[in-house]
Amino acid sequence: MIPINASDADLTRYVTNILAAYKQASKDQRRRGADWYPAAHQLADMLSDGHPRMGAGVIAALSANKSWTENQKLAARCFDGNMSGTFEDALTKVRRIMAGERPEDVLPMTVKTGNFFRCIADPHDQEAVVIDRHAHDVAVGERFGKRDRGLSNVRRYAALAHAYREAARKLRMTPNVLQAIVWLVQMERK
Question: What are 9-18's pLDDT values in tens digits?
Answer without folding.
Answer: 999 999 999 9
